[in-house]
Design goal:
This protein is of the alpha+beta class. The chain is built from three helices and five strands.
Length: 198
């Protein structure tokens, strides 16, 4: 009969628990690389000459967006008039930058081992009899035929049922931007320009 305690002790819990944690670390790396790619592809125009820089560094001008709208502008005589105004803003300054961090990983492991020992006995008894009698001129003869059969069938064994399940829940949150990226955004915000059209 299977000993559930012994069987559970043979499981590789280092892999069972470490596997999801390593996967969470790899997911964190992929998230950081996705942030870098977002900043490079969305926030900056590619170099005009199409050169690829060593180390795949970000080069080039920041991608800018220009808005045109009407604004009341004061005149020297104290009145105001509506004039078209252009506002130029770096694209990174108006988009949320995805920077996710895995905050929590929950691992649930469930092992269910059912072990049943069984013994089954089947018995069959069969009795049969045939009687034959003959009579001729006062003398008679009889013949008796009897049969007896006994059968016993015994089955025994173990039946083991195993089921394992693992659930992994990861909770990710939007992390604060690193200091360097926050400084870049601060510089980009200083590039915002409002220009009144003539």
């Amino acid at each position: 009969m299977t000993d559930p305690g012994t069987e559970l002790s043979t499981l590789n819990f280092e892999s069972l628990i470490g596997g999801p944690l390593i996967a969470a670390v790899h997911a964190q790396v992929q998230s950081a690389l996705a942030t870098v790619n977002f900043v490079k592809q969305v926030g900056f125009n590619p170099p005009a000459d199409g050169r690829v820089t060593p180390g795949n560094q970000v080069t080039g001008e920041p991608a800018m967006v220009t808005f045109t709208y009407q604004k009341q502008v004061p005149k020297p005589d104290g009145t105001s008039e509506a004039r078209p105004v252009q506002l130029t803003v770096p694209l990174l300054a108006i988009l949320p930058i995805p920077f996710l961090r895995i905050e929590e990983v929950d691992i649930d492991f469930l092992a269910k081992i059912d072990s049943v020992q069984f013994r089954q006995v089947d018995e069959q008894v069969k009795v049969g009899a045939d009687l034959d009698a003959k009579a001729s001129w006062g003398w008679g003869s009889a013949r008796l035929k009897a049969s007896f059969a006994y059968q016993r069938d015994t089955k025994e064994g173990n039946k083991d049922t195993r089921s394992y399940s693992m659930g992994v829940k990861a909770r990710a949150v939007q992390e604060e931007l690193p200091g360097g990226l926050a400084k870049v955004l601060s510089i980009l915000e200083s590039l915002i320009q409002e220009q009144i059209q003539a």
